[in-house]
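2.7 Reproducibility. Because tokenized structures are sensitive to small changes in the input, we list the exact sequence used for Asparagine synthase-related protein, including any N-terminal residues retained from the expression construct. No trimming or masking was applied before prediction.
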Amino acid sequence: MHAARHALVLTPGHAPRVVEVPAERPQLDLVEGARQLRGALVTAVTRRAHRYEALSADLSGGVDSSLVTCLAAAARGLSALTYTDAVMAQDDDVRYARRVAAEVGGITHRVLDGKEPSVWRSRMWVRTRSRGHGVGS
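Resulting structure tokens (single pass, no recycling of outputs):
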């Protein structure tokens, strides 16, 4: 038996309160846990993908971004962006990002290299825009 767990709940306009946290669920075997995780991820990404007319993703080539990008692309096409620079050039991430984009349908992929002058201008535009001086601010 596990000791009772508690959480502090802070709600604007109300006094802080302590609530009991429900007991942990029984452990699942690997197959059932994987099935439930897959279902939850597919549902969460698909619901969000269908809310928007156009989708984009930051596809680093790692497991997390690749998974979410693939699930979103299955729901509707998307544009994916992978950033690289001299420091990251030695990593496998860009290679994996390209492979994911090539092998999974519905992904329009672009790799941005930090050496490209347009990347620097884009960063400056974002910085300027965030200060209220750019287009659309």
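Residues 30-49 form the longest helix (20 residues).
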